[in-house]
Design goal:
Elements (H helix, E strand, L loop, with lengths): L1 H5 L5 H43 L2 H61 L2 H33 L4 H15 L4 H6 L2 H42 L1
Length: 226
């Protein structure tokens, strides 16, 4: 009933919109009036020139005063337009500020609701549970990987591997004994055997040298006798 009698109460945004619309309308009316005065100024100038040619100097002075007033009015209209535009800009700024305030108010309400629903101890418990379950999952993955590796590794793979190596060596003409002789452990055994045989070889060389001396001595004695 009251809305019907006095009208619906307007919001600040609606009031700003209506005031800005009124200011824009006033600026357009000023522009129309200024353009009319400028057209009238051109006519006055033409009449002044005409009367000056006809020698009507009194009429020229009167028209000159009218021209000066006309120009002053145009200048004032430029000033009024500038002021109205400044007011319109202020209203636009207020409208933007009001929109920003409304947005911040809505965001603040939403943040309050979310903060009320968010339970910090519960969140900490969730994070701890997640970390524990993640560690369990990693341990389970490692155990499954080891179990799969053990299952994939056969019991007779070592023997099959040795047989395959021997077969390849036989095909290329290399015996397993030669390969074993070339091993580092066999090299040590060969070196030990050489050390044991060294004294016998030295003794043999010493005996050969004594026989050679006796042969030379016998030849010398034969030469003396002859």
């Amino acid at each position: 009933m009251l809305d019907f009698l006095f009208g619906k109460k307007k919001t600040p945004a609606e009031m700003l919109r209506e005031n800005k619309r009124t200011l824009d309308k006033a600026i357009r009316e000023l522009d129309r009036e200024r353009m009319g005065l400028q057209q009238q100024e051109k006519k006055i100038v033409q009449e002044i020139k005409k009367m000056a040619k006809e020698g009507q100097m009194d009429a020229v002075k009167v028209m000159a005063k009218s021209l000066v007033r006309n120009r002053h009015s145009v200048t004032k209209m430029y000033g009024l337009k500038s002021q109205l535009q400044a007011v319109s800009l202020r209203l636009a700024t207020l409208k933007s500020t009001q929109a920003m305030a409304d947005a911040m108010r809505g965001a603040t309400k939403a943040m309050k609701v979310m903060n009320k629903q968010l339970n910090l101890p519960n969140l900490q418990k969730i994070m701890m549970d997640f970390e524990r379950e993640n560690e369990k999952m990693e341990m389970t993955s490692d155990m499954m990987g080891d179990a799969i590796d053990d299952a994939m590794e056969g019991e007779g793979e070592e023997e099959e591997t040795d047989e395959l190596v021997n077969q390849v060596l036989d095909e290329i003409g290399i015996g397993q004994g030669l390969e074993l002789a070339a091993a580092p452990g066999n090299k040590v055994q060969q070196a030990a055997a050489q050390q044991e045989a060294a004294p016998a070889m030295a003794a043999a060389e010493g005996g050969g040298g004594a026989g050679l001396d006796e042969d030379l001595q016998a030849r010398l004695d034969n030469l003396r006798k002859s």
